[in-house]
Amino acid sequence: MAKxxxxxxxxLLVWMLLALTASxxxxxxxxxxxxxxxxxxxxxxxxxxxxxxxxxxxxxRSALEIELKRLDETDSRSAFLPSVTLRTRYFVHRPxxxxxxxxxxxxxxxxxxxxxxxxxxxxxIRKLLTRMAILSHLRVIADGLHRLARVFLQLxxxxxLAPLQQEMVELAKKNLTYVRQRExxxxxxxxxxxxxxxxxxxxxxxxxxxxxxxxxxxxALKTLLGLQPEASVSLDLNQARRQILEDFxxxxxxxxxxxxxxxxxxxxxxxxxxxxKNVSLxxxxxxxxxxxxxxxxxxLSTVRTRGYFFSIGLKWPVWxxxxxxxxxxxxxxxxxxxxxxxxxxxxxxxxxxxxAAERLRVALRALKLAQAKEEVARLKAQKSELRYxxxxxxxxxxxxxxxxxxxxxxxxLKSLEYDLALLALRHLSGDLVTHYVEESSWQN
Length: 444
Prior knowledge:
Layout: H1 8-21, H2 24-27, H3 45-55, H4 60-78, E1 84-90, E2 105-111, H5 116-184, H6 190-225, H7 240-245, H8 255-261, H9 263-284, E3 289-295, E4 309-315, H10 323-389, H11 394-429, H12 431-434
Antiparallel strand pairs: 1-2, 2-3, 3-4
């Protein structure tokens, strides 16, 4: 059987799997409050995605932000009409003067400062802010679906890894029994028995770690779906890879398509357009404001005429230390900053795309290498099977079977790495979120 140094790859593989299952979803605490349970048929990825879009708390805040921006937009529309304030005043005690206005009260309707050009640009700014809120919400949805898809792929890999690990446990038991028999016959030393026993304990520990990883993933899934911690969820993982990756072809995905679909770049473009409106708004503040009024004569005045009198006026600050002029320069400078940020965002997105494409190529090479090693291990296992039938020791057969199982496990882990890399590329291209949500569905 193998020496003690052969147990080290087993530990490394387990830690590799645990590293793959580490994601931001694990550290997110479960939120309190009543949430819908997942009672019903088993959830595949498509059903889980629809459930998450409907009730997950991950998407609630950004969705409510859209409603707030729409309320702000409605407020800006109402600014096209000047606001009117009613002011009344009654004098309980007045001077006893027969020349004063005989009425002891006054009524006036006054408007706030009104600038229709400023109101127009304010409305355009609010519309842009609403569109930015929609894009931000879609970006949150894209990240949430990506996290959900990662969990499904990892759970699918664990489901396929579990029977392999069980085979390794059974194989370690057979090896321990075989070594003990050899010890009784005087053909094996005591340290070989201890080694076989430790290898069995290690395979069982790996099995326990896999079960704990599965439980952690399922708890993270409940958070993503907006389920209560005590809720039970049944999953259908048979079609997980097909539903998540579908017919996505990495070779067809281009950088130009990534830049066109990027929510970050679209938001940056809206920021530039928004700041251009702010420049125009700063210029509009140089124009005078209009105010209107309808009022009755003052009870303390000597005007004895009764009735309502209409007035109109202009309000134009004469001296403000050139603050309004400097504000125009300030807004133009901010516009240049946003243009630079847009270029930086495009450069960062290009770099992310290149890194994701390189990770996919590396993962593909590693997967092909693992598949080749598995094939070699399979042939060696067949060869050992034939030799065992011709009288060679059982230990050689068990060792070849163990190596074959380890090769199969390594292939499965490399396949998971490749799937996650391909998923990251699909997420970056925007293809995943557009499959479930369209921006037009959020427009009024």
